[in-house]
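Shapes recur. One chain:

:::
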Amino acid sequence: MSKASIIGAYNTEFGVFVKKDPATGLMTDTKTYYDLLVEAGRGAITDADVAPEDIDAVYVGSCSPASFLNQEHVAPLAAEIHPSLRFKPMTRTECACASSTVALYDAIYAVEAGRCSNVLVIGVEKMNLLPTPQMTHVLACCSHWPSEGSRGMSFPMLFAEYAKGYQAKHKIGDEDFEKMLFTVGALGYKNGAENPLAHAKKGPVTVEALKALCQPDERGKSKNMMIAKPLRLHDCSLVSDGAAALVVTSTERARKHRKPAAEIAGIGHSVERLPIGVRPNMHELQAGKDAARKAYKEAGITAKDVDFAEVHDCFTINQILSTEALGLSQDGRAGYDYMEGRFTREDKVAVNLSGGLKSKGHPVGATGASMHALVYKQLVGEPIGVKARKADVGVAFNVGGSAVTNCVTVMRRLN
């Protein structure tokens, strides 16, 4: 079976693209969902150096546009990218925060089946038009509503259950565990500071700075308040607006293309049961490990072959869990490895050189496409931000919901 490759990618800037009237609380768009989708799609086609008329299909990943901005049926918006895309098949995929990785996988299937030659994949989300309570409700709809969302369980609370389960399983003291989480958060901010597209271009880049922010000010308020114990504000990813896009073709065509390419050497798509209450444990990403196993087997590699990874740090605990799921650390050891200085830009395998969701930002429907765009750019020698020490094999690990949809992609530099 011929594999698929990425021959072009584009990432918009991530951020808060709204203005809020302080008197009325009214939100005004400064860069719309429609703007972001079109910018990313056009950018990827240009980067791939293909003619728009040669795009055979479009897949758009978006988590909840109807709730965020009252727009369903979003895939046809891609027709606004170029007149030549009119009459092309366009499909939206939804898998919470993994929506656009699933869009990419559908594009891969179309290419590998021979049905399409070139496919455009777009991930996009506009989250900041809603006040925080409404935005939190929209995201809670990606949990198991009867047992979680309807009972007031937010995503910080769901991942706090993983944090508590992990800490108890591996018998980690409170002080060490806090330091582990702060180390991961600080690394994200440090890398994100060099990413020109990142939502948070400034942030506390040391454990000490994050710890200092926990202290209450004269009004009794903390800048690193507890959100869902043991997770604090700076353990949580950002609420972002943004888009990213990719152009996928067959590896055979990619080898003949004028542009450098990255082959999608292996994928693993594994789904966990939706309610956390029915899972066997809450101290590891069991479906994530299964996805990694599948992706590595298809690519013919082991964890030792990975040069860098973009992992889904929606919360700092999930970066630790993801690092172990990918086999980059032994179970129970990732937090200690981070504290010992592993996974930095100088390490044999670097994690989240982009700054991750913690610093780069997390427009949920765009995140998967963005992770793949960033891995692609590293592999072809055009890194966005921090450059990997070695970039022959890169991995993207995107998660949807409370570690429910797990997508691991192995990518290899092609030419």
Summary: The mean pLDDT is 97. Residues 49 and 258 are 8 Å apart (CA to CA).
